[in-house]
TrEMBL record:
Pfam families in the record: ADH_N (PF08240), ADH_zinc_N (PF00107)
Domain annotation Enoyl reductase (ER): ranges: 11-326
Name of the molecule in the record: Enoyl reductase (ER) domain-containing protein
Gene3D superfamilies: Medium-chain alcohol dehydrogenases, catalytic domain, NAD(P)-binding Rossmann-like Domain
One Gene Ontology CC term in the entry: mitochondrion
SUPFAM superfamilies to which the protein is assigned, alphabetical: GroES-like (SSF50129), NAD(P)-binding Rossmann-fold domains (SSF51735)
One MF annotation (Gene Ontology) recorded for this entry: oxidoreductase activity
Top-level taxonomic group: Eukaryota
CDD domains for this protein: QOR1
Length: 337
């Protein structure tokens, strides 16, 4: 197979190289997948630099999120869920390659009518946003929801989930183009959060200036968001894309009866497996009803494993919106994208 192997940490994705590698050898509980599309994540950049919490022993193949076609089922499973030829998406170490091995729990069937490129960007973003808004915050019709970094991968997923549940969505982003993207995915109002008065602007968009019921924050804007959060509001702490862990003036939390709610979707598979199943059922229902569409960045195409460094640099430089997905054409010409 061809893939991007990491034998030592690199400073920039530009140092990554595609080489010929032996095919992965699946364990008795693993599938072998032909990769047709690989999605990029911020943690991929951290991992190749040696800065992520999960660092495999050298050498390892980079990338984690993919979509493709099943080549072989696990030898130890009597009744595999995905027969050979199944279109699947999922996550497993080694996605930046033409083949990857993965456990059944890390795979899902590609949605009907979606290309494998579309499906490749679904596994991380959709359940993070659905789990946060539906499971943790109990979003409902009539709620006002503020989504920060709304044009990002989890942001666009959050906008769509909140709208599907009948909420009014106020989206923030840092450029005119990203605000337009958020609007095209269903946001009712958009606010530029480079304007220092954004909390005031958000508040004015809510009935009688009461503030928003839910804040979805993958950036690290909790402290400022307390200024435009309603009484009994929930602030979902999804991540720290701004790069620093902020300190929050807790008196504001107390005065408005605000709930600060942590969201660590990756740990649900460890602590609450049954919730993983119900969250995916909910997402697939929204997709089937046409209420959740693919969020793949489409301003520019990235085709071939050689384009992974460019895709990661674009992602890291905040030049993109949605999910940046790289198409991985199969040499045999069998790719069903």
């Amino acid at each position: 197979m061809r893939g991007i192997q990491v034998a030592q940490y690199v400073k920039s994705p530009q140092e990554l190289r595609v080489t010929e590698l032996p095919d992965p050898t699946p364990a008795s509980d693993e599938y072998l997948i032909e990769v047709h599309a690989a999605a990029t994540n911020f943690f991929d950049i951290l991992q190749i630099q040696g800065k992520y919490q999960n660092q495999p022993p050298f050498p390892w193949v980079s990338g984690a999120e993919f979509a493709g076609v099943v080549l072989a089922t696990p030898s130890g499973l009597k009744d595999p869920k995905f027969p050979v030829g199944s279109r699947v998406f999922g996550a497993s170490q080694g996605a930046y390659a033409t083949k990857v091995k993965a456990k059944e729990t890390a795979l899902l069937p590609a949605p009907e009518g979606w290309s494998l490129v579309d499906a490749a960007g679904l596994f991380v973003t959709a359940p993070t946003s659905y789990g946060a808004l539906v499971v943790r915050a109990g979003v409902k019709k009539g709620d006002f929801v503020l989504v920060h970094a709304a044009a990002g991968g989890v942001g666009l997923a959050a906008v769509q989930v909140a709208k599907a549940f009948g909420a009014t969505v106020i989206a923030t982003a840092g450029t005119k183009h990203k605000l337009e993207v958020a609007k095209s995915f269903g946001a009712d109002h958009v606010v530029d959060y480079t304007d220092p008065k954004w909390p005031e602007m958000v508040k004015k968009l809510t009935p009688k200036g009461k503030g928003v019921d839910i804040v979805y924050d993958p950036v690290g804007l909790v402290d400022l968001s307390t200024k435009c959060t309603a009484w009994n509001g929930r602030i979902l702490i999804v991540g720290f894309a701004a790069g620093k862990i902020e300190k929050v003036a807790m008196n504001k939390v107390l005065l408005k009866n605000i709930s600060l709610v942590g969201v660590h979707w990756g740990q649900y598979a460890v602590h609450e497996k049954e919730t993983v199943v119900t969250v995916w059922q909910g997402i697939m229902k929204l997709i089937a009803e046409g209420k959740f569409k693919p969020t793949v960045f489409s301003d520019k195409e990235f085709v071939g494993l050689e384009k992974i460094p460019d895709a990661l640099i674009a992602l890291g430089g905040r030049e993109t919106w949605g999910k940046v997905v790289v198409q991985v054409p199969q040499q045999e010409g069998k790719s069903r994208l």
